[in-house]
Amino acid sequence: MLAALRCVIHRDLLLAARRSSDVMTVLLFFVIVVSLFPLGIGPDPALLRTIAPGVIWVAALLASMLALQRMFASDHSDGTLEQMLLGATPLGMTVAAKVFAHWLVSGLPLVLISPVLALQFDFPQELLGVLTLSLALGTPVLSLIGAIGAALTLGLRGGGALLSLLVLPLYVPVLIIGAGSAEAAAAGIGGQPQLLLLGALLVFAGAFAPWAAAVALRISAE
Amino acid sequence: MEKTGIPSLEAIDLHCARGERSLFSALNFTLRGGELLRIGGPNGSGKTSLLRIACALLEPTRGEVRWAGENIRRLQEEFWRQIVYIGHASAIKDDLTSAENLRVACTLAGIRVQPARIGEALRELGLGGCENLPTRVLSQGQRRRVALARLALSEAMPLWILDEPFAALDAAAVERVQNLIAEQLARGAAVVLTTHLETRIATTLRIDLGGG
Predict the structure, then answer these.
(1) CA neighbor of A166 nearest in space, from A142, A182, A144, A150
(2) How many angstroms separate the CA of residue A77 from the nearest CA in chain B?
(3) I want to staple A67 with a disulfide (CB 3.0 to 4.6 A). Which of A106, A209, B36, B195 is the partner?
């Protein structure tokens, strides 16, 4: 079973490497959206410092939204999904492997580039760690929740818009807690409680979302 | 896998409706090891739906399919570990090479294969020299062969379910796939297939789905 999971992750990374434009689109979208704010608001360091965590978090959320549709779409259209449904490995595990690979190519780059983007906002350097950690804990939760939505809207006409309507409200708690951690740290009360909550959300979503997505995939495949 | 221990596939009172239209109703059959079930009928008569029901991808409107006396929708992975399903869509990724595609397909199905066997299987289907080409550059028939090469590595699976295996293949490839199926039947496994082609393999069971 581990061999199958390794194989799925390896395959998805290989596909992403051979289609690197898809990965770059998400990353560039994130960079551009975040960079638009300092340009639009103007050089007011105090204001920029205040909005930095919120802006970066909202941009990360929209960027991961953008990548969601691709999570199962190509496997659905070429029949690979059928083979996964009929695989020897429990579908929930296969989905978990796919979500992990998806996060590696669409979530992790955002986490890694966010400290650089935060500099545009004159964000205090000692708080960069909290912001990055909150994204590192939060973006996998976004991928996991998004997987359920992507599975439910698979093969639907206008699935993209429906997917946003379905998934964005579910992202709200992650956004509030995630952006709140850096804000609390900036206010001097420490972001630890929020980070712990994000960690708890990640464990919870990691345990249940793949199975929910698996059930949704079986329904979509019928 | 022992030859004698191959369970049978039973369909009991199967009904299938897609939308308003009833495709077939009250369908019964029992397929034992070493037998070939060939499903015929015009386009849109429900052949693919029947295959998808037989491998538990689709839920029948009524009735059930049993493997070794158990409903396959309850057996789940235990059943799927024993079957090969090659559907209408070949499950071939354009950006992967033939060898990578075949390796992924086998790993997903839970078949452990040596890298050398993958090359052999591709050569058996007449794809020697294409192992390391992305399937994007292959023709439709060649991609179908990549998907079917999995059969050469699936001797241990007691049930093969093949949807139009001969579509898009040339005469030589049809001959090779027929040989693979005949050898598998001789090993005592069961095969279900749909085709419009006259095959030379002895058909044990035949179901012709009418247009309604």
Answers:
(1) A150
(2) 8
(3) A106
- Kindly report the CATH number that applies to the domain delimited by B1-82+157-212: 3.40.50.300
**B80 near A CB under 8 A:** yes
Do residue A86 and residue B55 have CB atoms under 8 angstroms apart?
yes
Residue in this structure with the two tokens 């029947």, named with its chain if needed:
B50
What's the maximum distance between 2 C-alpha atoms anywhere in chain A?
Answer: 58
CA atoms within 13 A on the CB side of A132: 18
Distances (CA, A) of A22 to A63, A197, B77: 12, 31, 33
CA A101 to chain CA mean position, Å = 11
User: What is the value of pTM for the model shown?
Assistant: 0.91
CB contact under 8 A, B104 and A11: yes
Closest among A214, B209, B183 to B201, alpha carbons compared: B183
CA distances from A170 to A68, A90, A198 (A): 14, 26, 14
Predicted confidence pLDDT, tens digits, chain A (222 residues): 788 999 999 999 999 999 889 889 999 999 999 999 999 988 888 999 989 999 999 999 999 998 898 899 889 999 999 999 999 899 999 999 999 999 999 999 999 999 999 998 989 888 999 999 999 999 999 999 999 999 999 888 877 889 999 999 999 999 999 999 988 988 888 889 999 999 999 999 999 999 999 999 999 888
- How far B182 CA lies from chain A's nearest CA (Å)? 24
B90, closest residue in chain A (CA to CA) = A79
Cβ atoms of residues A121 and A53 within 8 Å: no
**Domain residue ranges in chain B:** 1-82+157-212, 93-156
The pairing of beta strand B9-18 with beta strand B36-40: unpaired
Please tell me the distance in Å from A4's CA to the nearest CA on chain B: 6
Instruction: Tell me which chain B residues have a C-beta less than 8 angstroms from the C-beta of A221.
Output: 57
Contact of A78 with chain B, judged by CB distance below 8 Å, is answered with yes
Q: Is A33 exposed, middle or buried (0-12, 13-18, 19+ CB in 10 A)?
A: middle
Place of tokens 């992790």: A108
